[in-house]
Amino acid sequence: MRPERLGPLGRRVLFWGLLLLGAMSFIYPFLFMLSTAFKSPREQFRLNLVPTEPTLANFRAVFEQIPISQALLNSVLVYGTITLSVLIFSSIVGYALARLEFRGREFLFNIILLTMMIPGQLLLIPLYLLIVWLGWTDNRLGLIVPGMMSAFGIFMFRQTFKTIPQDLIDAARIDGANELTIIFRILVPVSMPTVITVGIFTFMGGWNDFLWPAIVIREQHLMTLTQMVTLYAIGGQAGGQFGAVMASSLIAVIPMVLVYVVFQKYYLQGLVSSGIKG
Fold first, then answer.
1. How many DSSP H helices and E strands does the chain contain?
2. Whole-angstrom distance between the N-terminal and C-terminal Cα of the chain?
3. Three-state secondary structure string covering 163-215
4. pLDDT over threshold 60, residue 4
5. Pair (41, 125) in one structural domain
6. Fewer CB atoms near the end CB (10 Å): N or C, the chain?
7. 137 with 131: CB under 8 angstroms?
8. Is 80 exceeded by the pLDDT of residue 48?
9. What is the total count of domains within the chain?
């Protein structure tokens, strides 16, 4: 039957039914991970989402077998520093490209956009050689420094700052404000949706990254949470404890879910205000 023959109510039911089906296809794996983390070994491979015998034994096993607390602290330290750096440097460069007049401004902006089209995997080898030459392997600097600038962040701030009236900036200059004061005391506070959007993208992108930390870091006490959990799941440390693997994955996922839930409204506003629409 064609959709136009269903009538308004039928089309609405069909739309919400397909939407619900698509949502469940994404939500079910997370719900399965959540329930399995609390299941006893006897029911770990069943598809039921409500454990009949809930237990915390899987979480105890994770904390006893690997230093997951240290890995969590490493991730917060590394990616918190990266996020703060990206927000500072991207806002400065974005302001320069949006409001300052200098020769080659548009060319420079196009080069920055071009870097967004280069797959990150192509840069792994030269970047790793540079890190080795600097002596930053098995060092948090090897994780932090390569991520301190973001072409995406520069683009977002430039687009946002171009929408702010020039009169506001001129008034600040008349009052004696320098360029950094204009950026961090005037423009950034009125651009909080963009700040939060760039912050979420940067923090989540780093938090979920496994490949680069696996290349740079070998010492267990320096590993990030995602790296630690991945090696725990596939490296044999879990000893076939499927519930413990799900528990470790849940520990790694929950912080990102909480961050997105808390800042979801500002995240969507930032995308719209910067000219990026779904």
1. 13, 0
2. 30
3. CCCHHHHHHHHHCCCCHHHHHHHHHCHHHHHHHHHHHHHHHHHHHCCCHHHHH
4. no
5. no
6. C
7. yes
8. no
9. 2
